[in-house]
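Subject: Re: docking follow-up (nicotinamide-adenine-dinucleotide)

Dear J.,

Thanks for your patience while I sorted out the input files. As discussed at Tuesday's group meeting, I've set up the holo structure prediction with nicotinamide-adenine-dinucleotide included as the bound ligand rather than trying to dock it afterwards. The sequence and the ligand SMILES I used are pasted below, so you can double-check that they match what you have on your end before we go further.
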Amino acid sequence: MQIKNVTIIGAGVLGSQIAWQTAFKGFNVIVYDISEESLKKAKNFHRNFSEYFKLHKNATSNEIENTFSRLQYTTNLKEAIKDADLISESVPEIFEIKRDTYQKLSNLASEKTIFTTNSSTMLPSQLADYTERPEKFLALHFANPVWEANIGEIMGHKKTSPEIFDIVVNFAREIGMIPIPIKKEQSGYVLNSLLVPLLHAAETLYFDGVADYKDIDKTWMISTGAKFGPFGIIDLIGMNTLYNIIKMRGEKLKDEKILSRAEKIKKNFIDKNKLGVSTGEGFYKYPNPEYQNPEFLK
Ligand SMILES: NC(=O)c1ccc[n+]([C@@H]2O[C@H](COP(=O)([O-])OP(=O)(O)OC[C@H]3O[C@@H](n4cnc5c(N)ncnc54)[C@H](O)[C@@H]3O)[C@@H](O)[C@H]2O)c1
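The structure tokens for the complex came back this morning:
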């Protein structure tokens, strides 16, 4: 099966990136969102991405023009998916919203359409029953930003057809991702299975007063050669995500100490609009964070 037409469901932070990258790589893309406001924002993001691609990816004006010509935006779900070969879903990480989305999609989509979810924390088997096509449903999970952290983690569930799995692996490659096939369901895929414990260890060292965040970052950067330490990574993924991760962990373990850390993140960062790279300040100040200065590691 040849994928040509792709529909993005949910045009937020990740959906708008996936839409741009997919159109840039030559696919026809329809961007669907329930909110006109979100579509407006996505169009703005796309203008910014086009500048970024010209500056940092050597994209020609012609390539940018062609990318825009392959992108359409709509709030009409039926229209958005009628010709879709593949759907990439990036609606909010809330079970009820995902469930309702798949129930609607299952009624409206053509039989050929493959459904992929970009959920970071839900397993495909939790949603498969609502798709009415479990064999054509699996996760294709992206990292942020899609074109720099260009891995595509592909994870099916027990009923996903191996043939569909391979089609999605190929599709991931065609849109410029390095495919990472996940052989069995794993919460957090590979990336977050590695990253979440690292960030947890880092914030524990910091909040327990063991070491300053800059020294924690220096330790990681010098000893592994990484471009970022854990607090640089936290600034990239954003304080809201860190807050959610810590809060979920605190609630799961019923641990007041962990929950109080989440409140500190809220009070000292989120309430002050220090959300990380996106607002120009988190643990570090942007666009020129201290950890990029060669003196930082001396
Ligand atoms: N943000 C990240 O770094 C990141 C990375 C990997 C995966 N993800 C996953 O991507 C998904 C989306 O995350 P995000 O950060 O882009 O969220 P977001 O809040 O930025 O965007 C969600 C979008 O979905 C829209 N929406 C809400 N309800 C909808 C519905 N019923 N139908 C269609 N659109 C609807 C919203 O208007 C919004 O534009 C989540 O599953 C998340 O786990 C996020």
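A couple of observations from a first look. The chain has two domains: 5-182, 191-297. Residues 9-15, 33-35, 38, 90-93, 97, 101, 118-120, 141-142, 144, 237 surround nicotinamide-adenine-dinucleotide (CB under 6 Å).

Let me know if you'd like me to rerun anything.

Best regards,
T.
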